[in-house]
């Protein structure tokens, strides 16, 4: 090992270890309209790192591949700034390195526009933590522009969900809550050797389907009328979308554009592309999704006080293109309510070693992952500056061969500026057709009668 015991803060918990092998950074990228003061942004990022020293920490791996959280060493890396195309998210010119720092800021300028992307290592920052960091970055920038910025005391290192489970006396039960989405493994996973030549860093930018505010509000109201969560409705629509194309074999559609809006016209079955099915065969789908435990603990946990605070919930069903979305959503929501009431989701994290890493005995391979990070807050900005778009991206700083199969597809769901966004990540041979299917399923959901 290249570090000493004095460098070590702690060994990462299983909920954090899953993001060590590929050095996964989760990115929040915003498009900025107006003149961005680069010097102030550099200063704001420096203040963010000082206030949240976990961002200046490092991760070291021992011979077994176990990640260790290490204290900061040397001077923190400041914001990177370059001129370029702000319409897209690209790999930074500099390398993200978890052995150096766990958060980076990449700024791309183009006239009076800029793209600002905050990357935080997923082992120490989940969605809730990442959004809180981005909000504090823009708070600091706005305060510095107005001349009212004040330094605050450094924040304590955040803790993982396992720590909070122990603190709250949450016991491990006989069931994980993931039985419906998992299968026993024939043998323990073998950690593939690292390639002789390290793979280059890789950036994943999900293709998005974006709803207008009116359509988004209609889905929220539909959920209220039927007593189901928006997450349940969207998850049901996404399962329907996946079933639509998974039930069709041998056809393909042209690759769609990066972003599209779902409109009622797209839900017309007469206008489907080549290979799209009507009422296709039943497809057995297994879905896994995270549930943020911060607000469900007493007292609640602040966003920046937890690293990875999500338990996992699962749902399985046979789905066809004729499956009623609202009825499916009611089943999904009922299952989640039951598992929360029984404390199953709360303790699911205590079963993570059974599913992830070298001690895994059950496989979640082939499941559909739906990550709903909820409503993005309105970030503070000074007069003359506006954040007009928000994206979630992922960066693998050192991709390696996977230790085992993973999700068949990952859907990322969030609402920004009252617009529901669904991103598609992965999907293999179905990837090119999924965004169009998602747009159709969401349009059908929007078209459901509120009074039905």
Descriptive account of the structure:
By secondary structure, the protein is α+β, with helices and mostly antiparallel strands. It has 2 domains: 5-159, Chloramphenicol acetyltransferase-like domain (Chloramphenicol Acetyltransferase, 2-Layer Sandwich), CATH 3.30.559; 162-377 and 398-447, Chloramphenicol Acetyltransferase (2-Layer Sandwich). It is built from 9 helices and 18 strands. The protein has helices at 14-17, 38-51, 127-146, 161-167, 213-226, 230-246, 325-341, 344-347, 434-447, and strands at residues 8-11, 24-33, 58-61, 67-70, 80-83, 103-110, 113-121, 183-184, 202-204, 207-210, 259-261, 283-292, 310-319, 362-363, 368-375, 386-396, 409-416, 419-426. A 7-stranded mixed beta sheet has the order 11-10-18-17-15-12-13. Strands 5-6-7-2-16-9 form a 6-stranded mixed beta sheet, covered by helices on one side. A hairpin with a 2-residue loop joins strand 17 (409-416) and strand 18. Helix 2 (38-51) packs across helix 3 (127-146), helix 6 (230-246) crosses helix 7 (325-341) and helix 6 (230-246) packs across helix 9. The longest helix has 20 residues, at 127-146. It is globular and about 55 Å long. 43% of the residues are buried. Mean pLDDT is 90; it is low at 249-279.
């Amino acid at each position: 090992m290249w570090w000493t015991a004095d460098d070590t803060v702690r060994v990462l918990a299983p909920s954090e270890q899953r993001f060590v092998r590929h050095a996964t950074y989760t990115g929040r990228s915003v498009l900025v309209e107006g003149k961005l003061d680069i010097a102030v942004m550099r200063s704001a990022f420096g203040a963010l790192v000082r206030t949240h020293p976990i961002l200046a920490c490092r991760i070291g791996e021992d011979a077994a591949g176990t990640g260790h959280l290490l204290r900061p060493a040397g001077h923190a890396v400041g914001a990177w700034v370059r001129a370029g195309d702000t319409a897209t998210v690209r790999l930074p010119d500099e390398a993200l390195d978890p052995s150096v720092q766990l958060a980076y800021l990449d700024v791309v300028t183009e006239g009076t526009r800029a793209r600002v992307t905050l990357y935080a290592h997923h082992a120490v920052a989940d969605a809730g933590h990442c959004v809180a960091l981005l909000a504090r970055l823009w708070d600091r920038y706005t305060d510095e522009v107005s001349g009212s910025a004040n330094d605050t005391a450094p924040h304590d290192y955040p803790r993982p969900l396992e720590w909070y489970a122990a603190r709250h006396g949450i016991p491990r039960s006989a069931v994980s809550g993931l039985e419906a989405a998992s299968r026993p493994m024939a043998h323990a996973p073998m950690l593939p050797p690292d390639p002789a030549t390290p793979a280059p860093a890789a950036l994943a930018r999900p293709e998005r389907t974006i709803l207008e505010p009116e359509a988004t509000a209609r889905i929220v109201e539909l959920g209220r009328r039927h007593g189901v969560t928006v997450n349940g409705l969207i998850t049901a629509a996404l399962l329907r979308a996946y079933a639509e194309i998974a039930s069709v074999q041998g056809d393909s559609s042209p690759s769609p554009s990066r972003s599209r809006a779902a409109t009622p016209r797209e839900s017309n079955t007469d206008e489907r592309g080549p290979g799209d099915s009507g009422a296709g065969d039943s497809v057995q789908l297994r879905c896994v999704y995270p549930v943020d435990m911060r607000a469900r603990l007493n007292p609640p946990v602040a966003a920046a006080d937890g690293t990875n605070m999500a338990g996992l919930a699962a749902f399985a069903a046979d789905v066809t293109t004729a499956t009623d979305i609202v009825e499916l959503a009611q089943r999904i929501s009922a299952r989640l309510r039951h598992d929360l009431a029984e404390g199953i989701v709360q303790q699911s994290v205590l079963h993570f070693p059974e599913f992830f890493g070298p001690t895994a005995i059950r496989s979640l391979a082939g499941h559909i992952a739906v990550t709903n990070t909820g409503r993005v807050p309105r970030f503070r900005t000074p007069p003359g500056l506006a954040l007009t778009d928000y994206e979630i991206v992922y960066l693998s700083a050192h991709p390696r061969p996977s230790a085992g199969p993973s999700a068949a597809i990952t859907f990322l769901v969030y609402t920004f500026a009252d617009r529901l966004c669904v991103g598609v990540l992965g999907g293999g041979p179905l990837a090119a057709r999924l965004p169009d299917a998602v747009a159709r399923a969401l349009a059908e959901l929007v078209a459901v009668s509120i009074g039905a």
